[in-house]
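User: quick one, fold this
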Amino acid sequence: MRKRALVVGLGIAGMSAAIGLRAAGWAPVIVERAPERRQGGYFVGLLPDGRQAAIDLGIAQDLHTRNPAGGGNAWELDRRGNRTPGPGFLHQPGRPAAVVRGDIEAALWQGLGRPGAGPRIDVRFATTPVEISDEGAAVRVLFRDGGTGQEYREEYDLVVGADGLRSDVRRLVFGPHTRYVRDWNAMICAFQLPGQVPGYGGEDSIISARAGRAAWVFGFADRAPTALLTYRTASVSEQFTGDWVERLRAVYSGMGDPVVRYVLDELERAPEFLFDSVDQVRMPRWSAGRVVLVGDAAWCLNLYSGMGATSALRGGAELGKVLRDTPDDLRAALTVWESRLRPSILRHQRIARLKQQMFVPSSRWTEAVRSFVLRLGGAARRRQMARGLTAAPAGSGPVGRNSPEIS
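Assistant:
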């Protein structure tokens, strides 16, 4: 009889874990608090470990990538609004694959029902766990149906919490968020632009970064860019009071380059956007008995790391591998799984502090250092392009087509 696993969360980490579990011979069920599958999303740069995990999970052929040829042009704006070419996110080592979050989730959704991979994985929407009790031989879970309010219990051999930064599973099993969530005194606002900033090429990326605040525009090969506003603050709680758009206009007042003006104007017309704090999750252990956390619920690296989607895919793929290789000892399997992932996760959590300075410098001094580093990188990239050495990034190809190969 196949062992049953509950996966809480229908995001990248949750679907990856469910596909990995099925491949290991388990029978996973996914519950999701939202009433339907979320689609769309904002820029993600998928790095080599994430691309390999997509291959391991069998979803690579369905993952649509959107890299501009050669990584596209990236422009850095100075305080006067003058632009200079420089390295963008897609020019970093590892040749990130440019996608939006919905591209990864769409590929994983296809993977849940892939013919020949096993039974289609059951997904229950508008459902949340309200009690989780590990009784040794099994985990008893009390669910609440968000539509009817009905509550019911079921038993599982394993519970996987993949329900994000503010995880219900982590709160119910490991304790309150305050034990594990680290406030970074920073905010983000991300949304889809209707079109490129006037005066720039359709695939261009643009960066306007000043001490304490920055605006980024990420260009794609076959869709309009997405925008990211990010800034530092002494009080995160205050940022959630009042009108958010007006607050952002106040934060960016005096930063009057045309890119910032365009992004703020379009934000007022955006049908939806993400406005949230920047945090990191630090835990001494990601599992307890028959309950394990994956992705942001366990280790949230945060946006500045650039590794969130990659680590979520890898976490689910590796979970499936260890459960396949150690089918009769769950505790040993989870210990091996964590030992494989933790060194990389801790390294990227530390590096994220440095990367934050690249996204949004903390002072005029770090702003100057950042600009100097980027000028050096821009000069090196221009020399590389002049010699014809710049390789096409992973996933680049004909506009509007799915790349058959993402490794």
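User: anything notable?
Assistant: Confidence is low (pLDDT under 50) at residues 389-407.
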